[in-house]
Amino acid sequence: MPQTPSPGQHRLFSRPSYPEFIRIGKILRKETVGGMLLIAGAVLALIWANTPWSDSYFALRDFHFGPEIFGVNLDLSLGHWAADALLAIFFFLTGLELKKEFVIGDLRRFKTAVVPVTAAFGGVLVPALFYTIINFSAGEETLRGWAIPTATDIAFAVAVLAVIGSALPTALRIFLLTLAVVDDLIAIVIIAFVFTDELKLNYLGLALIPIAAFTILAYAFGKLFANHAWAAWLLLLPLGVLTWIFVFGSGIHATIAGVVLGFCVPVKRRHPGRGRGLAQEFEHRFRPLSSGFAIPVFAFFSAGVSVVGMESAGELFLDPVFWGIVIGLVVGKPIGIMGSTWVLTKFTKASLDEDTKWGDLLGVTLLAGIGFTVSLLVSELSFGLQSPHYEHAKVAILTGSFVAAILGALWLVPRNRRYRVIHERETRDENKDGIPDVYQQDS
């Protein structure tokens, strides 16, 4: 029987505010499609890279082109363009989502933010610790990959939920999404500070000019950009491209430019009225570009690894990098998230919502072990394209993500009947305005 919370006690995974419920639901539906395309891109790359025509795949991935602009050499391979330029779109949306969560989302309130934030840190620290322990005696080179198993790919995870038909309660779905958003924030910090070998302050200073212009225009003419897409393409896009070039030239990974620009977009409307704010409008416009093109193309160029071309399976399985990543994703993620959440319930006034069991949380933490997009990016930054550890890391990411998806599905599917009962009960609670009674207080 669920325990009745004492006065002042906060329920973990309780129902979110109604606007948050609607907003996150829309995002999840879009991420489902994007996750399917991501999986398709990765599978196509794996098949092509392991056929007799594999040389053509790697020739395409390694094809170089690009000019030199403002002294920045942009002669990059297609794979490099996908990782640095296309993923900047994904990270721009991440920046928008992070700012919205902290300004108008549930993360603006400490009592709702503390749970996913704490869980995200646990889900980063424990996999990194597992990886470090496994690779400690292997040398400094393999230790560079400690951040690879720390990421959660929300698009992939939501796609798995769609495939298995899970009726996971909305509160837990939002927890998984928020966990992944905070997880991305931590990954952004790691990429910016850990994988910047040489910082060129002159280019970083130059980047501040288009960033400042972008911010001023976004706040001054938010209504124009929200109502007329052409205005944003004509005025803001060139500033975004300049920012990307200068950040790339500074030595910081260029995707950070996307995050910074995302934070420069206003969330709230300056004048009350109907319609979306600029951040929400940009998210609506650019998410299909990210989910439908940028991420699948990145997955296509990053996931291709010639397993049949490896010298031996023994070489793969003897590499501690492989086991550090797989165990970090499959074991470290659930332990880190579950453990940190359990600590919250033991040493604070927080408790699980009456509809949420620890077994439900375990299923979510297993899905959080699906690390793909950011993990592939970090593996490239950790080892470089020519390192055999990089190829092993890609196989490990694919293996760990696949195992996590299977375990999450096997755990959650038998619980679908109970989840549907919860959903039907919440549906019956809808009032005459179409808003569930449980959301009236916060709407």
From TrEMBL:
One of its GO terms (biological process) is regulation of pH. It is found in: Cell inner membrane; Cell membrane. It comes from the Bacteria. The chain crosses the membrane at residues 32-49, 69-93, 113-134, 146-168, 175-195, 201-222, 229-246, 252-268, 289-309, 321-344, 364-383, 395-413. It catalyses: Na(+)(in) + 2 H(+)(out) = Na(+)(out) + 2 H(+)(in). Pfam families: Na_H_antiport_1. The keyword Transmembrane applies. GO terms for molecular function: sodium:proton antiporter activity. Its main location: membrane. GO terms for cellular component: plasma membrane. Keywords: Antiport, Cell membrane, Ion transport, Membrane, Sodium, Sodium transport, Transmembrane, Transmembrane helix, Transport. It is a multi-pass membrane protein. InterPro entries: Na/H_antiporter_dom_sf, NhaA. Na(+)/H(+) antiporter that extrudes sodium in exchange for external protons. Belongs to the NhaA Na(+)/H(+) (TC 2.A.33) antiporter family. HAMAP family: NhaA. This is Na(+)/H(+) antiporter NhaA. The gene is nhaA.
